[in-house]
Amino acid sequence: MKKIGIVGGISWVSTTDYYTLINQGVNEKMGGLNSAEIIIYSLNFAELQEKTWVDCYDLLLHACTYLKKCEVNAIVLAANTAHLYADRLEAEVQVPIISIIKETAKHILKHNIKTVGLLGTKFTMQLPFYRSELESSGLKVIVPETQNDIDYIQDVVRDELGKGEINAASKSKIVAIGNTLAKRGAEALILGCTELPILLGQEDFTFPVFDTTKIHSNAIVSFIIS
Prior knowledge:
By secondary structure, the protein is of the alpha/beta class. It has helices spanning 12-30, 45-51, 57-69, 86-93, 100-109, 122-126, 128-136, 147-159, 168-183, 196-199, 212-225; strands at 4-8, 38-42, 74-77, 115-119, 140-142, 188-191, 209-211.
């Protein structure tokens, strides 16, 4: 099996989901007492937020460089927004990065879906790196129309889900935002933040929902056992 390095702590809550899903997946495939060989570099989420995603490249680079020294076969950025720097990090560190965006696009296209609604941090929804990658694969992407909705999701992800807090009112509001995307033509919804599946799931909607944490973890399992 191959060894992977995870840049986690962004947030620790979703990193625990990765750890669980990857090990469960490897054990299901390999049986017995098999589990994944994983090295996790867990960042301090408060430090990253202080720098902001726009200025955190040095933190991510330091983590990836450390993981390279551990002789991992691939690196995982355990956050959708961190993929803002995925190509740059891969080029500089010279270790493959398993992309959550590419894997999500491949998975969705297997379902013959053309138009998707995207929920995530404000950076994932508004900066071009995520949407352009999905669009280049042939998907049309819809995000919330109002800045208030975008900022609301950002605040919930950072200030509640980033600490593992579940708030029923927040869930109700974000479900309503997702349903509005469907009314605007989205055939499916991407939970484009690894914290969102802590709050939302397929059971909350009448149309397909794609959990990027699970999609990414499944791709990682396939890589590990390949």
